[in-house]
Specification:
The chain has six helices and 31 strands. By secondary structure, it is α+β, with helices and mostly antiparallel strands. The protein has four domains: about 120 residues, Immunoglobulin-like (Sandwich), CATH 2.60.40; about 130 residues, Sandwich (Immunoglobulin-like); about 120 residues, Immunoglobulin-like; about 110 residues, no CATH class. The radius of gyration is 37 Å and the shape is globular.
Length: about 575
């Protein structure tokens, strides 16, 4: 009886431990949506991803309450990195919402495991501005997320090409708006939808538009020209037996914007954005800075929904007495994401205290306009106090100097023998030393002669390359040809900095030339490309080159001692 009770007790304990271990061993199953929000009667994809084999097959029945499941597939992959095996299993469902609103994607059971929750916003069907309301084979729809933006605020412009026929050799015009910066966002998306009772394939493309002046502005209509493939047999007697097609042109509606001026009290630094992040980093502890030793402060500003051109300077030269500041050139960058433009500005400042004590740096405040809440906000880094200590306080202790051991004196009986051998040894030593130093001098002379010839040849080769790139840039600036100027700057940047991006090349240049290169980069991706003027770029380039030549002459290392 006692043995039976013990066996029952340990069985219950083992069962309890197994139940507790189940959540730990459960597979992690996440869910994602390829687009959010979506329109009613538009298909989209739900992807369930598991990091390991789940407990069982999924039961997608709970989805049928709010969604029609049009198609589903399963795929898996295995990767081995650093001898560690990583497994991924995906279930991809093509679904269509049954109603509009904020719909919840419920947790799906995979045996004892379950997926996470998610949500998707479903808008009213066909709420875009449509060119024509007839049941056509090709339809262009355009819409904006805001028709009354503020100046320099991001406007998301979305175009949708709906087609129920096959097309080839299609061309589509780009959106045009005077006094605005326009950037394409992400990659095109393809999905299915139902429009006016018919099934269509949709190609969706998005742009970010930043109007640069207030007032009423009109985004011109887009035009699609395509070869529509006709149903039926191919041309039997034509060259290569091509398919029969007919040319069709479709035009979208124009979109009108009422751009508001910046609100009163916004200040001189106008920065509209969806979100702002202001951060700082230090290379050392603020309480243990040695006098005369530099410490680097890195300030970074992220702006979601803004261009890099509107980001303000972060460093203000208001340093305290006995605290020197040496700012580096800022790093500027932009990234066109699927939902908007992300701008980035980074500034590094080297601070060197001149004497011991505490230094309080003032707070950094960046006012900005929140385009979501329509209110002014302030991104802030609070004031910082750094403490400088004497350099000797943090210096490591010196090693003790070993005692000097004096050799014992030589007896008088051996003096004559030592003097004779010493004279002979000294004569032989000086002879070999003279030969050694003479050989070393000859080798040094040969080294400097060969190095001077190599430097001269390299300088001549570099000068020839630079002169070719400079001539091309001068011609492009004289003709106000923005694309030719871009190509010349690419050639010059590859030779000088091994860079092939205008933004990366600009980072290596003086502030004046940097600003002109960024202005050219902005013009290339806007409607102002043909209005670009190259005179200021060429002047800034000449000043940069003259300053660079003077600097290289001063900083040329290992100048020869003698000009031979």
């Amino acid at each position: 009886m006692i043995f039976f009770n013990k066996f029952r007790f340990f069985s219950l304990l083992l069962l309890l431990l197994l139940n507790l271990a189940k959540p730990i061993l459960a597979a992690d199953i996440s869910v994602s949506v390829d687009r959010n929000p979506v329109n009613l009667q538009e298909s989209f994809q739900l992807t369930f991803t598991a990091n390991d084999d789940p407990d069982g097959e999924p039961d997608f029945a709970p989805l049928e309450k709010d969604f029609d499941i049009l198609n589903q597939s399963k795929q898996q992959s295995v990767q081995i990195i650093n001898w560690e095996k990583t497994k991924s299993i995906q279930w991809v469902l093509t679904v269509m919402a049954k109603r509009e609103g904020s719909l919840v994607i419920p947790a799906i059971n995979f045996g004892q495991d379950s997926s996470q929750f998610a949500a998707v916003i479903v808008n009213e069907a066909n709420n875009a501005q449509v060119a024509g309301q007839t049941n056509e084979d090709l339809v262009l729809q355009v819409e904006v997320d805001s028709t009354q933006p503020y100046i320099q605020e991001q406007v998301i412009y979305t175009l949708k090409l709906l087609r129920k026929v096959n097309i080839s050799q299609a061309s589509l015009t780009e959106p045009e708006l005077q006094d605005a910066v326009i950037e394409k966002l992400g990659e095109d998306k393809n999905y299915n939808t139902r429009f006016q009772g018919e099934d269509y394939v949709v190609t969706e493309r998005k742009y970010a538009i930043f109007p640069q002046k207030s007032g009423t502005m009109t985004i011109q209509p887009l035009t699609l020209t395509a070869e529509v493939i006709l149903p039926g047999q191919r041309r039997m007697n034509s060259f290569f037996n091509r398919q029969r097609t007919r040319t069709k042109r479709v035009v979208s509606n124009a979109v009108e914007l009422t751009v508001k001026a910046k609100p009163a009290g916004a200040g001189s630094n106008w920065l509209p954005a969806k979100q702002i992040a202001l951060q700082e980093k230090w290379t050392d502890q603020l309480e243990q800075i040695a006098v005369g030793q530099p410490i680097t402060r890195t300030i970074t500003l992220y702006a979601d929904g803004a261009t890099v051109g509107v980001l303000p300077e972060l460093f203000v030269d208001n340093m305290l007495q006995h605290l020197k500041a040496y700012p580096d050139q800022p790093v500027l960058n932009e990234e066109a994401k699927n939902d908007g433009v992300l701008a980035f500005r980074e500034e590094k400042i080297a601070l060197i205290p001149g004497q011991t004590g505490s230094y309080t740096l003032p707070a950094i405040e960046i006012p900005w306009w929140n385009t979501n809440t329509r209110k002014m906000e302030i991104a802030r880094i609070p004031e910082r106090t750094i403490t400088a200590i004497d350099a000797t306080d943090s210096a490591p202790g010196l090693e003790p100097i070993p005692p000097i051991i004096t050799p014992a004196p030589v007896t008088s009986d051996s003096n004559e023998q030592l003097e004779a051998s010493g004279v002979k040894h000294a004569s032989s030593l000086w002879f070999w030393l003279a030969i050694f130093f003479a050989g070393g001098w000859l080798l040094t002379l040969v080294y400097f002669l060969s190095r001077k010839k190599a430097q001269t040849a390299k300088r001549q080769n570099t000068t020839a390359k630079k002169s070719s790139a400079e001539k091309d840039l001068q011609k492009a600036c004289a003709k106000n040809a923005s694309i030719m100027a871009k190509d010349a700057l690419f050639q010059w940047g590859r030779e000088q900095f091994k860079q092939s991006s205008l933004s990366k090349i600009a980072e290596q240049c003086e502030p004046l030339l940097q600003a002109e290169i960024l202005a050219l980069n902005t013009a290339l991706y806007s409607a102002k490309a043909e209005e670009w003027q190259g005179e200021e770029l060429w002047e800034a380039f000449q000043k940069h080159q003259s300053a660079d030549v003077g600097k290289s002459a001063q900083d040329d290392p290992l100048q020869p001692l003698f000009n031979i």
